[in-house]
Specification:
This protein is of the alpha+beta class and 297 residues long. The radius of gyration is 21 Å and the shape is elongated. The protein has helices at residues 2-38, 43-73, 84-97, 130-135, 138-153, 156-182, 192-236, 239-249, 286-294; strands at 76-77, 103-107, 114-120, 123-129. It has one domain (2-73, 155-294). 66% of the residues lie in helices and 7% in strands. The chain has a four-stranded mixed sheet, sandwiched between helices.
Length: 297
């Protein structure tokens, strides 16, 4: 299992680097917008506003993000009486992982998918579609549940909310700046060519910043999927279990109620896939994940 530990360390490091890049990018956006709107010296005000917006979005996501994701997906909480085999599987894996038992939800769909959400291990939930429960064998289902529990244990559920907050902050800042510019309120103190350059730079940044933010979010999401694959393997000691599950899930994971805002939570992309969509997928290609998992044996 040395390869597994190597994968975990590598993906944790890459996720941290990407998150730091995201925070730095948000600060840059806030600074440039502040300089363009207020003038020289206004950049620090822009930084403050960017931070406030990110904190507000973060708090909303932290306290109600999980409930929103479950409600949007149409997931319904179940008891041990409803799905005793799933409860036993989750409990056994939680004991192995040293995690408290999450709440369990079922999505009434024959698609094969699953996701974990919440703000921390004590306030977490795992949602499974009926399709994934019925169409995977016990070994494969254990691999999927171990993957989702790894998202909880690695605090990916909290990280994803933070990243969504950063994306939201960038989008709000860009929108506000463009509105200021359109209605002629930008510019602040006129400082000649330097100020003009800052305004032009800010306009360009306002247009492309939301796209850059989404691309960084996608990169972080993909790294956390690889991390959860590797961490889940440590729980089951069977990399092929998840690899076999992903082979069955691939191409059968689309969910009508899934949205762009919740897609990153699922074990497999729940949105319709097209040629262009692959570039903006929240998940690494299933083939790549399967290849990495097979290599852990």
């Amino acid at each position: 299992m040395a390869i597994v530990y190597k994968e975990i360390t590598s993906n944790k490091l890459k996720s941290i680097v990407l998150l730091l890049v995201f925070v730095a990018f948000l600060m840059l956006v806030g600074f440039v917008f502040g300089e363009a709107v207020v003038g020289r010296g206004g950049g620090f005000g822009g930084l403050t506003i960017a931070g406030i917006i990110a904190v507000i979005y973060g708090l909303i996501g932290y306290f109600v993000g999980g409930k929103i994701a479950l409600a949007v997906s149409g997931a319904k909480e179940v008891t041990r009486k409803n799905v005793p085999q799933i409860y036993n599987m989750v409990e056994n894996l939680c004991i192995t992982a040293g995690l408290p038992n999450p709440k369990i939800y079922i999505i009434d769909s024959q698609a094969m998918n699953a996701f974990a959400t919440g703000r921390d291990p004590k306030h977490s939930a795992v949602a499974l579609t009926r399709g994934i429960i019925e169409k995977l064998d016990k070994r494969e289902l254990q691999g999927v549940i171990a993957h989702e529990l790894s998202h909880i244990g690695n605090y990916d559920i909290r990280l994803s909310m933070l990243v969504v907050a950063l994306v939201g902050a960038v989008a709000i800042l860009s929108d506000v700046f463009l509105r200021f510019t359109i209605f002629g309120r930008g510019g602040g103190k006129k400082d000649g060519k330097v100020q003009l350059i800052m305004i032009l730079l800010a306009i360009a940044l306002a247009i492309i910043a939301p796209l850059i933010a989404i691309l960084i979010q996608l990169a972080i999401s993909r790294k956390r999927e690889y991390l959860a694959d590797a961490s889940g393997t440590l729980l089951t000691r069977d990399p092929n279990a998840l690899a076999d599950a992903l082979e069955k899930i691939s191409g059968h994971s689309e969910l009508p109620k899934a949205t762009k805002g919740t897609a990153h939570l699922y074990i497999s992309n729940p949105l319709k896939k097209g040629a262009v969509a692959k570039w903006f997928s929240t998940h690494p290609p299933a083939e790549e994940r399967i290849k990495v998992l097979r290599g852990m044996v």
